[in-house]
Fold this protein.
Amino acid sequence: MKIVRWDASAWAFSPDKLKKVGLFQTERFFLDLYCLEPGQSQTPHAHAGADKLYLVAQGRARVQIADEERTLVAGEGVLAASGEVHGLVNDSGERAVVLTFMSPPPPKNA
Amino acid sequence: MKIVRWDASAWAFSPDKLKKVGLFQTERFFLDLYCLEPGQSQTPHAHAGADKLYLVAQGRARVQIADEERTLVAGEGVLAASGEVHGLVNDSGERAVVLTFMSPPPPKNA
């Protein structure tokens, strides 16, 4: 079996933009680590027919779901159901890491 | 939006058997916390057409995937792909918590 690390040893950051670290990918889902330096973000967008889950693993992130925004801290998570606009921004002064599940994965990743 | 906690404040244990704490459920996946006292287990089983992911969040668990067994510690995860026999046992002396993602969920949960 292939054991994959998802803790700090797997985190990677880019000075340019949010860094996505792919952990698992099947035809049914993906699990990525989204690693955000302060100020980095994922632009709000939506997927028809796919659910996404954000679980904050480190730091804090301001998450948008539909027309609502909330700050989530490590240990909190939220669902963006099919069709709901969703995005996030690290508006804190510290690095943030978010476990991100999506089911099914986008066609380009499948 | 509904913010859900997945850290220690959400963990719950049963003296009788592995305790499953449901966090998220859609028609496309579920995410549970599996909370295991020492000696508790999930009996090996398989699902055709569904993938399961175990992410150890606390402690350690001995995981079986197909005919292989390995001990995973917090921060490690492993995929049981569709059809692969999988199960786990907390054979340590401490409590263990495992984030368990399954896509799609079993029909009885959908």
